[in-house]
Amino acid sequence: MKYLIGMDVGTSRIKAVLFDLEGNEQKIAYRDNEPIYEGSHSEQDMNMVWDKSLACLKEVVEGVDKDSILGIGVTGQGEGCWLIDKDGKPVSNAILWNDGRAKDLVDEINSNKELSELIYKTTGTPVLTGTALTLLKWSKENRKEVLDRADKLFFCKDWVRYNLTGEKNLELTDTATSLMNVQTKEFAYELLDALELGEYKHLLSPAIKPYEVAATITDEIAEITGLNKDTPVIGGAIDVMATVLGAGAINNGDTCSILGTTCATMIVSETCEPGKENTRFELHPIDDLYVNLQPTMSGTPNIDWVVDNISDTRVYKEIDEKIKD
Questions:
Q1: HSE (CB half, 13 Å, CA atoms) of 202?
Q2: 3-class DSSP assignment, residue 95
């Protein structure tokens, strides 16, 4: 039997799953992720994220014939700001997608209608506190010494994929949320210039397609995990778009919803109208398709709050019974 490995590096949990070629789950490993919250700040230790991702991978392949594993795909939380130096080491904690420190900056940008519309119509995403573009601008204004040490900008899954392969790549579905023209799929360098970030264009690595093979795993990862050193790793997609694909929403007009740290309703579209009121467009993992996304940033963490403050159990069957009562 042949297998594929899927990894999901989420905000609150990291998972690795072994699938057969029919899509049946054969084995799963997971570790709780650990966001660091302080006031409006939301961060994660990048080394911790990688260590737990590697632990999940090791666990899920243990006892499995290495010749039966055909490849690895990595998805993960999107947006945010994950910076590494020239040695491939983090320059700071990652700033996450749900971070709020840049609120005043967002208000300032949005007060400039011409600039905010340029960003919205180019990327398909309005100016938000947790996007890479916003956080790069915030970093220049508030921690320039950190930004100046950075060699490359990653998103979460890119960081994990880099550690697996040693190759520095971005990926289209993540990058297009704030750093690309969502229609042309080219880097929106004009936005960096408009925000006086032109000196940091070197942070952007080539962006590969989500289904494209990024590279094979390194000799070190092969030795640690027992996998063949020619095991390929694909680009992967941002978690929300991977969910769209996994839910079978692959045709124009298909709709799906997700319940996670982010809750969202998504409509697949063959057309993209960035900047249209009450819309947010992102790239579908399938070429020439888009997703009209309607998200809320506060999903399952609200359930966690209820469990921690009102309920006395985290066993969902027991919670269901309490709700019935």
A1: 9
A2: strand
CA distance 2 to 7: 17
Q: Walk me through the domains of the chain, giving residue ranges and CATH numbers.
A: 3-324 (3.30.420.40)
From the list 46, 72, 70, 45, the residue with the least C-alpha distance to 58 is 72
Which tens digit of pLDDT belongs to each residue from 259-295? 776 788 999 999 998 877 768 899 999 999 999 988 7
pTM: 0.90
Tokens for 319? Answer: 């919670």
Per-residue tokens: 243: 């969910």
Q: According to DSSP H, which parts of the chain are helical?
A: 46-61, 103-111, 113-123, 132-142, 144-149, 156-165, 172-175, 189-194, 219-225, 239-246, 300-309, 316-324
The per-residue pLDDT for range 17-33, each reduced to its tens digit, is 999 999 999 999 999 99
